[in-house]
Amino acid sequence: MFSAKRTISDLRVFSRGYLRNKFGLFFGLIFPVILILIFGAIFSGNSSGTITVYVQNQDTGPFPTQSMDVATSFIDALNHTGTVNVQLVSPSENFSRYLADHSSSDGIIIPANFSADYLASIPINVTVYGNPSASSSAIVSGTVIGLANEFNLRRFNGSSIIGLTQTTVNTEQTKYVDFLIPGLVGFSILVSPMFSLVNISSEYKKIKLFKQLSLTPLTKMEWLASKVLFYIVLSAVSFLLMVAVGVFAFGAHVTLTVWLIPFLILGPMLFASLGMLVGTVTKNPETAGVVGNIVTFPMMFLSGTFFPISIMPQYLQSIAHVLPLYYIIEGLNAVMVYANYAQALLDIAVVTVITIVLFVAAAKVFKWRE
Amino acid sequence: MLPVEISSVKKYYGDIKAVDGVSFTVEKGEVFGLLGPNGAGKTTLIEILEGLRKRDEGTVKVLGLDPWENGYELHKKIGVIPQEFTFFEKANPREAVKYYADLFGVRVDPDEILKEVLLDDSAGVLFENLSGGQKQKMGLALSLVNSPELLFLDEPTTGLDPNARRAIWEVIRDLRSRGKTIILTTHYLDEAQQLSDRVAIMNHGHIVAMGTSDQIIAEHGSGERLEIHGTEKLADHIKANTELKVDFDGKDLISIQLNQKIDALAALAAAEQSGLDWGEIHTRRDSLDDVFVKLVSGIMDEHGEIKTERNNRKPGNQGGSR
Ligand SMILES: Nc1ncnc2c1ncn2[C@@H]1O[C@H](COP(=O)(O)OP(=O)(O)OP(=O)(O)O)[C@@H](O)[C@H]1O
Ligand SMILES: [Mg+2]
Q1: How far is A20 from chain B (nearest CA, A)?
Q2: Residue A195 shares a structural domain with residue A131
Q3: A122-131, A235-244, A257-266: which range is least confident on average?
Q4: For residue range A16-36, what is the model confidence (pLDDT) as tens digits?
Q5: A217 and A339 inside one domain
Q6: Within a domain: residue A148?
Q7: Claim to verify: residue A312 and residue A256 sit in the same structural domain
Q8: Around ion ligand 2, which residues have CB less than 5 A away?
Q9: Which residue has the higher pLDDT, A8 or A300?
Q10: Does A345 reside within a domain?
């Protein structure tokens, strides 16, 4: 009785209609990419990995030989750490005024006589301006301390015994982008099919389009299958777009394996069914919209979409565990970030069960005719 | 086997008796017009026949099938224009016809079907941008895709301009000449009269009259009348001097029931003899419009007979010329 041919015919008409609707296209494909760009930009603020720091060099010499200008070599060395990006400020400026004018809290003053005192082994202080609550300030003072130690040792011809390879500064940010992609992929798997099916199933019911379709040989299973197929394809396309943006714009680390496929198939199917269910059990499109939002919004924020649920209080974490999207995002993280396939398998199992239950329920509740 | 056989069909919505014991049959090749005021139950009845609603009681056979039980099978053989036809906003008529053809598994030329219903000039316009009449035409086009032997057209011409209406009439006549059976609802009595072999007038879930329009007029109409413009005094005079049934409308119209044409002579002789003034005279008989208005606004007695207060009839609502 199920005809693939009819399903494809319906799919063709539906996808053509979708592509003609700029709004749907925006939410299906463009919006997730914008989200990646926004969140990626926010949380990897200095994507080059350097912090701009203003340096006022008050040690103007005079220096009989170039090698006696220790202040300049100190600043050069600072610049070469790769951690900070030095912006020189003229010695005539009022430094704290200058920092305020440039909305910056990170600054360093090299005092006058710095070079002479250094060469004469007279203790001298470098002043570091910073904001105690900003992580960038900690990085700046850490860098300056490290550099000062190095110069101290060098003065007495010593050398560091414990060296340092500086690669850790970027990990915090990279981690966030890596984590952001599975979350936002989950977000787009949720939003497009869910909102769309809530909307069309209640709207078609209201304008009696289902009744009309029931007068053709198209069955409601075929109709539902065509919607599910459509959103699987849409999710796959939006997944690829998001991964591409994440990788090329933010250097995200993403593992692509066949393990992703179950999530990209089951996810849209799950939320298309859930949307269908909401649109069917509600009386009119307005109620459907409200109920749809009530179901969708908690899931949107509590499933680990924009931030890891481990940072949430315990009671919110418990709520997250009953949200289907949580298992999809957990699974995507397991596959894409941690390569933890035992975890992924467990998530696939949970998602499969929820999907089957919702799909069967939707197909049962959904009526073509009166 | 008749295309449509129904008897004692009932459908209640709580206290509302949408369809309350309807029986009729429709012959093959017949155009059957269903008339009735808003809320009479036409759409409910038609949708029961299409298998879209479940009857509460009665038997229904459409093309030999029970529409509710065997809807899927039935739908391949019937064509339907629902009242207030709608479609996917972002599809155009050509794509819609193609879509239906794919679903029914038939090969058709979309442009040919669209030409037939005079929609070929808008074949590429998205449904959301079609005018109301163009949408109706698209509905008709879709109902033809599977070459159905039986068509249900629920108000196919509502909202159409006179030209488009006539075009749809042509399509319906053509279908009839090809032996298709058609059940049609309409609020236009001329349309019912022009197109239908038989009409049924529905009111409050009942069929109150059924047959050819001539039969209905003969059965429920008032027969031929002589109308004289004159005073009540004149009316009384005629009444006193003839055996005829004379009505006065309370203003200036005297209406005299003619059992035979010669009765007109007696009435006029009495009028002349009265010495009173009288104006224009003419004879007229009820049109389907008159009968319809009487049937649906009249009070029915327990036998289903219509009692109308002829004396209260206002001049002008009979459509007679002055
Ligand atoms: N689903 C329903 N629920 C409740 N009442 C209904 C339902 N469908 C129809 N009715 C009622 O049944 C009666 C008949 O409605 P129906 O639509 O059949 O009338 P109709 O003759 O087609 O009228 P119109 O000429 O306005 O289209 C109306 O009183 C209507 O309110
Ligand atoms: Mg109706």
Answers
A1: 7
A2: no
A3: A122-131
A4: 999 998 888 888 888 888 988
A5: yes
A6: yes
A7: yes
A8: B 42-43, 83
A9: A8
A10: yes
The answer to whether residue A339 sits within a structural domain is yes
For residue B16, report the distance from its CA to the centre of ligand 1, in Å.
9
Whether A16 and chain B come into contact, CB under 8 Å, resolves to yes
Q: Cα–chain-centroid distance for residue A122?
A: 50
* Cα separation values, B31 from A65, B129, B196, Å: 113, 32, 5
Interface pTM (ipTM) of the complex? 0.80
Say how far apart CA B6 and CA B9 lie, in whole Å: 7
Cβ within 8 Å of B, A 219-258: 219
Instruction: Answer whether A166's CB lies under 8 Å from A83's CB.
Output: yes
Is the Cβ of A208 closer than 8 Å to some Cβ of chain B?
Answer: yes
Q: Please report the sign of the dihedral spanned by the C-alpha atoms of residue B174, residue B176, residue B177, residue B180.
A: positive
- For the segment A115-138, the average pLDDT, to the nearest whole number, is 84
For a pocket test of ligand 1, which of B12, B22, B43, B45 has the largest count of ligand atoms closer than 8 A to its C-beta? B43
Quote the domain boundaries for residue A193: 176-365
* Exposed / middle / buried, residue B207 (Cβ in 10 Å: 0-12, 13-18, 19+): buried
Residues A214, A287 share a domain: yes
State whether the Cα torsion B157-B160-B163-B167 is positive or negative: negative
Q: B227-271 pLDDT, tens per residue? A: 999 999 899 999 998 888 898 888 888 989 888 888 889 999 998
Same domain, A323 and A305: yes
User: Domain ends where: A167, A200, A235?
Assistant: A167
**Judgement on whether residues A126 and A216 belong to the same structural domain of the protein:** no
Is residue A96 domain-resident? yes
Cis peptide leading into residue A62 (ω within 30°): yes
CA B123/CA B133 separation, integer angstroms: 14
pLDDT single digits (tens) B156-213: 998 888 988 888 899 999 999 999 999 999 999 989 998 999 999 999 999 999 999 8
Alpha helices in A124-208 (DSSP H): 135-155, 171-206
Considering the domain architecture, whether residues A283 and A185 belong to the same structural domain is answered as yes
Residue of B nearest to A7 (CA): B103
Structural domain ending residue among the three candidates A167, A189, A204: A167
CB contact under 8 A, A6 and B103: yes
Counting the structural domains of chain A, the total is 2
Model pLDDT, residue B303: 46
- Beta strand B198-203 with B206-211: parallel, antiparallel or unpaired? antiparallel
Instruction: State residue A138's pLDDT score.
Output: 79
pLDDT in tens, A335-361: 988 888 999 999 999 999 999 999 999
Same domain (yes/no): A99, A212: no
Residues having CB closer than 6 A to ligand 1 are: B 13, 16, 18, 36, 38-44, 83
Q: State mean pLDDT over B92-121.
A: 94
Inter-chain touch B52–A215, beta carbons under 8 Å? yes
Which residues in chain B have their CB less than 8 angstroms from residue A227's CB?
Answer: none
CATH of the domain at A128: 3.40.1710.10
